[in-house]
């Protein structure tokens, strides 16, 4: 089998890989120096589109429309862009063995790739119900969503089961976005999750009450406090058995119960922490010439003086850029500033759109109009720790308002009274 050698290899062809390629091009990369190896069949794209516009019944997003870097307002990089720059896109290629000592990657078909510098950008994979041994969980009516192939399968099922019934298992990002988009596709939608409210890792009870009320208003049914324990499929679809004894009929089941970083290839070869590959503030691992970015990296979050792993698109983009800048700087004997990241998450569903910045710890205040029955609800929340705002959430903010909440979370504005903060609400952030 042929062996290829590159100065730089990015392993993984997702969000981080695309933003890394753009940064390499900006910093200067010669034709043939950089390769991106991906098991996906397409050039890097903005993954968040898959649970949103990709599934719309009309005007759906399709490639090449959402290749990186359009998600952050940047230039779109179609496959031709890589060809023009002499960046090799090695697609449909799964790496099954990584030997960091000999700097060699081996693909499922036996091809070898050697590198001088490796950036690990393998992202995450979905957690499957079959991983927990849930009975019948390998049925063809059960869908997961991570890659474009998964989204295409779901699109086909939506077409085939027109106006059918959907059960969405999980109340996180994917559960909320998928429930909305299935409803927009005119499905009868039921969400099932075990927690007392949706998105419990981020939302307070007050924030969640708005979304649950809004979804109910849109006709989405929500069953909380129980889980799916088994599935029986026949020609008519799926019977979803819940732990509390109820049984739900479904044509389509979509499961969104979390992800797991893809670090398996490197086990025992690189230091890990908190489930990810441990890096410094330049995304260098403990192995010389090996970097890790995006979902797989556990890095020092300078702002909170703590090692963290972040599974969000904004960090995937920025960590990739930081790693490439660090690589290029070290080649020139220069240094760059350490990564200083302010966590930023967002989601969109129906006509709603929220943003969150900072850390969701400490006391909380809810402000604004969070009545799901309001014609134009607009509300937010602050998290306050040690007398300072550390986190801020806003639904339906303007770009300037979102900038304002990001600023208070970044500078950790001191707060004198929680009552005052509740009363002032968004005005507090906007006047800083
Ligand atoms: P990925 O983008 O997942 O890329 C990893 C790549 O590596 C993939 O191409 C994969 O095929 C490839 N790969 C893995 N293993 C191998 C191997 N062995 N050989 C070859 N290739 C391999 N975040 C937000 O902040 N907001 C959102 O609204 C949002 N929506 C999302 C919606 C969906 C449906 C999903 C799945 C995620 C969403 N996210 C969102 C999270 C965000 O997309 C991820 O955090 C981001 O994509 C991580 O980037 P990454 O480059 O680390 O990994």
Automatic annotation (TrEMBL):
Which Gene3D superfamilies does this entry report, sorted A to Z?
A: 3.30.390.30, FAD/NAD(P)-binding domain
Write down the top EC class of this protein: oxidoreductase
The reply to whether tRNA-binding figures as a keyword in the UniProt entry is no
Full protein name: monodehydroascorbate reductase (NADH)
Q: Which reaction does it catalyse?
A: 2 monodehydro-L-ascorbate radical + NADH + H(+) = 2 L-ascorbate + NAD(+)
List required co-factors: FAD
EC number of the protein: 1.6.5.4
Cell division among keywords = no
Q: Which UniProt keywords apply?
A: FAD, Flavoprotein, NAD, NADP, Oxidoreductase, Redox-active center
What highest taxon heads this organism's lineage? Eukaryota
Please list the residue ranges annotated as the FAD/NAD(P)-binding domain.
6-320
Concerning its family, UniProt says: Belongs to the FAD-dependent oxidoreductase family.
Which InterPro entries would you find in this protein's record? FAD-oxidoreductase/Apoptosis (IPR050446), FAD/NAD-bd_sf (IPR036188), FAD/NAD-binding_dom (IPR023753), FAD/NAD-linked_Rdtase_dimer_sf (IPR016156), MDHAR3-like_C (IPR048618)
Q: Which PANTHER family match?
A: APOPTOSIS-INDUCING FACTOR 1, MONODEHYDROASCORBATE REDUCTASE 1, PEROXISOMAL
The chain positions of domain Monodehydroascorbate reductase 3-like C-terminal read 342-429
What molecular functions are annotated in GO for this chain?
A: monodehydroascorbate reductase (NADH) activity
